[in-house]
Amino acid sequence: MAGWQLAHRMGRLGTESAFEVLARAQALAEQGRTIVNLGIGQPDFETPGHIVEAAVKALRDGHHGYTPANGLPALREAVAEDLYRRHDARVDPAQVVVVPGGKPTMFFAAMMFGQSGAEILYPNPGFPIYESVIRFSGATPVPIALREETGFAFDAEAVLARITARTRLLILNSPANPTGGVVPKAELDRLVAGLADHPHVVVLSDEIYSRMLYDGAHVSLLRYPELADRVILLDGWSKTYAMTGWRLGYGVWPRALAEHATRLCINTHSCVNAAAQYAGLAALTGPQDAVSEMMAQFTRRRSAIVAGLNALPGVHCTTPGGAFYAFPNIAGTGLESRAAQDLFLEKAGVATVAGTSFGAFGEGYLRFSYANSLEAIEEALSRIRAVL
């Protein structure tokens, strides 16, 4: 038996169940099973060619060394310009910190504000890494229940009622994973107004799906000047530009926190891969046709999967307002979430993710990613119908 002993905090670190389901699906595929994967949350499109070529050119041009820890100046300027175009929000490039994906911004925020005795509010059902990093920080996770009857958008008064003197950070996500829920502007207005009574609370706004909205315009928390000194924006390239494997994201930090975020970069990963940053620059400054084409495909797939799910016995599904996830209620099947996930994978050869993987309030639901072809979606629904 090994003589070493792990630090207790390692026992508080969770995982992302979608990757566990992916591993099981791949194992079944290696056994000769045909698996339809509606579990993993990544676009099934290739990164647009001009973005790939920008990375190749950067390598050929000799960009093989370190970059500034917070990102290439040109890339941070491009991010600021993009945010102004999309959100009418003026951001100083010095507030932008480029990181390898979306998760470092979550982790940095939790490390800055989470400690024993502190509380951090987070959406439930929500991205599982929120609760994981909160627990790892030593803080107490306080769930914000998201309900189907409100389209999985939070109720501002309910959120404000959960804030205490110990609350240090509030995590929000719209459009949301796993539900596809979108918070209406009126609800954001009420929340921001109420936060005036809680100046000790910092807000982490995860807007990684901000370009993936089906109706209306995205409302960023950057648009509220009264939160300028305490809102952290999380965004990036993974979903919008089909760049999940490039590991490229960014945070926009209040001026007083940007330096702390940069020091965390220096201590964890030094800087982001240089070629990937040049690819990110090309994505923001180049043609956006591929983004529009991808969203047109997702729109068609959304219609197909929602209609198909609602036709299954014991299942009903609200129409997601954003992202590329459907979150159907399966209570009518008599199956609990984890049992349904396992049944559909083992018997139907369809990978989905149990709603409980996203928190206790996800019981009775499954997450379906429609980042797959219409043919695959139709095949998956046919197989599930046969099993049910």
From TrEMBL:
Residues 34-384 form the Aminotransferase class I/classII large domain. Keywords: Aminotransferase, Pyridoxal phosphate, Transferase. One of its GO terms (molecular function) is pyridoxal phosphate binding. GO terms for biological process: amino acid metabolic process. It catalyses: L-aspartate + 2-oxoglutarate = oxaloacetate + L-glutamate. InterPro entries: Aminotransferase_I/II_large (IPR004839), AspAT/PAT-like (IPR050596), PyrdxlP-dep_Trfase (IPR015424), PyrdxlP-dep_Trfase_major (IPR015421), PyrdxlP-dep_Trfase_small (IPR015422). CDD domains: AAT_like. Its EC number is 2.6.1.1. Pfam families: Aminotran_1_2 (PF00155). Its cofactor is pyridoxal 5'-phosphate. Belongs to the class-I pyridoxal-phosphate-dependent aminotransferase family. PANTHER family: ASPARTATE AMINOTRANSFERASE. This is aspartate transaminase. It comes from Rhodovulum imhoffii.
